[in-house]
Amino acid sequence: MADPKDLSKTPAEKSVTIIGGGASGVLLAANLLKSDDPDLRVTLLERHGQFGQGLAYSARRKDHRVNVPARGMSAFADDKDHFWNWLQEHEPGVYDSSYVFVPRRKYGSYLEDVLRQAGARMQGRLRILAEEAVSLRETSKGVEVELGNGTSLVSRRAVLAVGHETQPARGRGIAVRVGSEEDTPLESNAPVMILGSGLSMVDAWVSLVEAKHRGPITVVSRNGLLPKGHKDVPPLTISESDVPFGTTMPQLAKWFRALVRDTEGKGGDWRSVVDGLRPFNQKLWQSWSDPVKRQFLRHIRPWWNIHRHRLPPDLYQRLVDAIRSGQVTLRAAEFVGIERDGENTVAIIRARGTEQRERLTVARVYDCGGVSVDVRASHNPLLQLLVSTGAARPDSMHIGIDVDGACALITANGEVSPRVRVIGPLTRGRYFEIEAVPDIRVQAAGLAQSLLAAGQAEAAAQSSS
After folding, report:
1. How many CA atoms lie within 13 A of 119 on its CB side?
2. Which of 31, 156, 254, 369 has the lowest CB atom count within 10 Å?
3. Residues 6+ apart with CB under 8 A from 73
4. Distance from chain centroid for Cα 41
């Protein structure tokens, strides 16, 4: 591992600093290092020192699993079987089909291995630093990134790949996050409440199940919706000319429901329609006006998410069985407040469609409200600095950083940065569907080619001057 104090202030002509070592950062680094250019230099920063892990792939429970089959989780858009082949090599005979949903920790190990192999392919081109980036500014030489240890490094270009952030637990610290220091062991029969009913809730439920918890679990969310289960069906072939880009939300919903009815009427499955639409999701989002986007985020996104981001079929069935048995109770209600009651906790909720408040006494409340999607509320010091100084601006929905079509950072005054790019969930304002590996790897491949081309062009210009 390189010592940041030894890094030169004069950057190499083809040098890139990637800030964030989760899935987005690793996928970009791996795609960059596929280049045979011996002058390419890539520096990858990750403050926690766990590369390829990030928020998603640091989960340790065996049933904290990816929600995309192995066949769709390759790190490389042009090598769709890369992850499946890696699985076969590292666990021969364990999986008999690529339609398998592996533990997320296993996928994190895969990303670590992808990074290791990328660095080993040509020694000296990859530097990995377990450091935090606290500031970033463009200079006449490139981009200077100040590190938490007081040193800084300069490269020709930099990429923000900081990924997801969790929201702080609600309730003045009374509610806790799963796996946090406050998540101490519970009595097996203790009643528990989980706030949120999405994929983060499933993680909490899995943790409780693996800890042999037998007490009642109340799941509270505004809409009371559960993620649907996967089914091994092929995506429907949808012609781009048939997709109603730029329409109103009611018109789109009418078209989509008619397509589902037609598909199911022919013996198909709604999942085929959802997956068949996937190649056009980003273009659909970009075709909408801001009011339509807000309407989608406010009213449609909860229903879209449960159909789009699905659970492994066996895990889904186990959750449904737990609800049928009465161990898990799903409540469509608003979380109003929380207070202490000795060693217990009192959660106050209001059932959907009513004004009546209920007080439920439980041993613990887990906050599984999901990831933060308001960049203005970011707890990342670097993002806070960039936004507060105008070096970056939130997108119009405030769900990410504003970028152009080449993922270049856009400043508060509308200028496009020539040297700073953004990748992954931070670009959701432009792309929306940029959360999962199948989407991020395409973005990583395109961004890698763009960065390599820019480096080659600048090097050629300097050599001819």
Report:
1. 17
2. 254
3. 66, 83, 102, 107, 110, 437, 438
4. 26
Nearest to 78 by CA among 36, 17, 30: 30
Do the Cβ atoms of 45 and 18 come closer than 8 Å?
Answer: yes
| Site of tokens 């990816």 | 66
- Contact by Cβ (8 Å): 27, 437: yes
DSSP element (H, E) containing 416: strand 416-422
Q: 345 by DSSP, 3-state: which?
A: strand
223-249 pLDDT per residue, tens: 999 999 999 999 999 999 999 999 999
**pTM value?**
0.91
Tokens of 426: 């931070």
Task: Give the CATH architecture of domain 4-165+373-464.
Answer: 3-Layer(bba) Sandwich (3.50)
Tens digits of per-residue pLDDT, 323-336? 999 999 999 999 99
Burial class (CB in 10 A: 0-12, 13-18, 19+), 172: exposed
Contacts of 247 (CB under 8 A, 6+ apart): 255
Please report, for the chain, the start and end positions of each structural domain, with discontinuous segments joined by +. Answer: 4-165+373-464, 192-228+311-367, 240-308
The total of other beta-carbon atoms located within 10 Å of residue 452's CB is 18
4-165+373-464 and 192-228+311-367 in the same fold: yes
- ∠ CA 336-338-342 to the nearest 5 degrees? 155
- Using CA atoms, how far apart are residues 51 and 26, in angstroms rounded to an integer? 7
Which is nearest to 202 in space by CA: 334, 312, 336, 346? 312
Please name which of 87, 131, 179, 51 lies closest in space to residue 381, comparing C-alpha atoms.
131
The torsion defined by the Cα of 135, 389, 372 and 60, in degrees rounded to 10, comes to 0
Structure tokens at 226: 């559960």
Looking at the domain covering 192-228+311-367, what would its CATH class be?
alpha beta
Strands 143-147 and 41-45: unpaired
